[in-house]
Amino acid sequence: MTSEPVVVLAHGLGGSSDLPIPYTYALIGAAWALTFTFAVVALAWRKPRFDPDKPGHALPQWVTTVVDASLTRWALAAAGLLFAAWVAMAAFFGRPDGNPVPGVFYVLMWVGLVAASVAIGPIWRAISPTRALYRLLRLARLPAGGGYPRRLGYWPAVVGLFAFVWLELASPDPGSVSAIRLWLLAYIVITLTGAIVCGDRWFGRADPFEVYSVVASRFSPLRRSPQSGRIEVGNPFDHLPTLPIRPGTVTVLGVLLGSTAFDSFSAMPVWRTFVDRQTDSAATATLMRTAGLLAFIAVVVVTFWFAARATGGVDARSRQRLPGLMAHSLIPIVLGYMFAHYLSYLIERGQQAVIDLADPLGHGWNLLGLGNAEVNYVLSLHPSVLATIKVCCVVGGHVAGVIAAHDRALRVLPAGYQLTGQLAMMLVMVGYTFTGLYLLFGG
Amino acid sequence: MTATHPDKRFLALLAAGAVLLAGCGSGGDSENAQSSPTTPSATTISPSDMQNEQAPPDRLLIDVTIKGGEVNPTNATLEAKTNEQIVVKVDSDAADELHVHSTPEHTFKIEAKPAQQFQFTVGVPGKVDIELHQLGTTVATVQVQP
User: Do A19 and B124 touch (CB under 8 A)?
Assistant: First the structure.
């Protein structure tokens, strides 16, 4: 074969992408989504069921003791720092082909973090290298910092998340190691400076990865008991409403959902041909993709905002609070679509990234024997299984979102408006799901 | 490369608008260049056409022309099977690189000459972009089915 390794990867990671799901799968998924939605609105419970204060099944005390032990915390922080140093070595001195940095950045940090957060909780807080650096600085007598301005809310994280999806989906060369390196350096500098100025609140509000991890972890069955702080297993639907409502909460979810949809959309030949026709230079193509990405995010945020407010019987002040109060119901939809879209990336490119990490500099190292492993393309080789999983993720996420929204509507909407007040939200959610399925089916 | 791009719109305008300017060109070559943008890529590269031309039917031929920064076809959608021979035939007036975003990836050097052939197979099913790296143009996306 006259092939040689690719030097610069397009589309972030290069390689092939998933086959479109068959038409019938999309149709069946859409039918189920619609049926479930109206079944929930018309037939489901009429009294709110989910309550964040409802106790779960507490795990044995030693689990909480071990998780909270300062030895565990320092070990996790050290592991995070060590891993970051290893990746930094690859970013600065790695070979151009087979460099693990794009895989670590786009797959492990973006998709792997979500999977881990749903499974066990907001893990980024424990492994974040910037938090670890900050803890070391505090040990060296750094003052605690001034306090985080409440009005900023999640907006710095929105900017950070947008910067991430912009690099992946709109920038001229997403796969370039130097671009990712620059992004990560800026992220570390901004996060550390913010924490030094505003104190450690900054991490929870402004670090895009931590906010992302916290958002995903609200659908985890594992949580801390609000009363005792013990780790317990509970119903994820009781956990969902604990999503903090701050300025920017809805936009965080809008960035996550809108960007994933734009990723599918921007691979469609119609969009590519359109961009090619309109522009000749890479710079204007980047501008057009940026505009497209912003438009997708804006559509999600604006439709959700209007749908949440579209009810009768409330005064202006409580209407203003409705989008925030409903925001948590978007989490399952985001997660479902995220996994539908990136599951094969996580499983297959994730393996590739781990294998590449064994020898980041191309010196023939073989850390932990990982270099001998071969990627198992188990999902790509079975496209119909993958398509079924995708449709199940999207429809499952939709159903969970609808259930969460229904329950919340019963709690926050006034009597007499609990059914009609939900309708706009249900229609918008059906709209998200139909669009998601349409994009997965490839138009 | 960007210097040649303004030609693109100009050429399209010429070809779409009137043939009379074609007569002003220096010869047959420029006439071809002007007429190519008007031909929709779908008709020149439809998979059924390919198979009629080929003796063995399990082979996908993609005919690519690069002339004055203009590529034909672009963003075509094609289908193939895993391990089927995929042949890309390139007539080019400029050096470039052909990137095949399959798993694993393939890269071929394109020279400024006609009738270059590059051949590869794809073992893992998926959507494979075939891209001209210097021009930043996607020639075709091949849906490789198992």
Answer: no
User: For residues B61 and B70, what is the distance between their CA atoms, to the nearest angstrom?
Assistant: 20
B-chain CB neighbours of A20 within 8 Å are 127, 143
Q: Which residue of B has its CA nearest to A272?
A: B75
Contact criterion met (CB below 8 Å) for B138 and B99: no
Q: Which residues pair with B137 in a beta bridge?
A: B132
What sign does the dihedral A436-A11-A20-A392 (CA atoms) show? negative
ipTM confidence: 0.78
Residues of A in contact with B77 (CB under 8 A): 269
**pTM as predicted:** 0.84
Closest residue on chain A to B78 (Cα) = A269
Spatial neighbors of A123 by CB under 8 A, at least 6 apart, are A113, A116, A117, A213, A217
Cβ within 8 Å, pair B143-A20: yes
Using the structure block, give the residue that is written with the tokens 């151009």: A96
Is the domain covering B47-145 a CATH 3.40.50.1010 domain? Answer: no
10-residue averages of pLDDT along chain A (443 residues): 35 76 89 90 87 88 92 94 92 83 91 94 94 91 84 94 94 88 95 92 94 95 90 93 93 95 89 84 88 96 94 88 93 94 89 86 76 81 90 94 93 88 92 92 74
- Fill in the DSSP letter of residue B19: S
Please state, in angstroms and rounded to a whole number, the distance separating the CA atoms of residues A410 and A356.
50
So where are chain B's domains? 5-38, 47-145
- In the three-class reduction of DSSP (H, G, I as helix; E, B as strand; rest coil), residue A226 is classed as coil
Element (H, E) at A167: helix A155-169
Nearest Cα neighbor of A221 from A116, A328, A120 is A120
| Cα A72 to Cα A128: distance, rounded to the nearest angstrom | 14
Residue corresponding to tokens 């992302």: A212
Whether residues A15 and B144 touch (CB distance < 8 A) is answered with no
B99: left (phi over 0), alpha (psi -120 to 50) or beta: beta
Buried b (16+ CB within 10 A) or exposed e, A153-187: bbbbbbbbbbbbbbbbbbbebbbbbeebbebbeeb
Distance from CA of B5 to the nearest CA of A (A): 6
> For residue A355, what are its two tokens?
């294998």
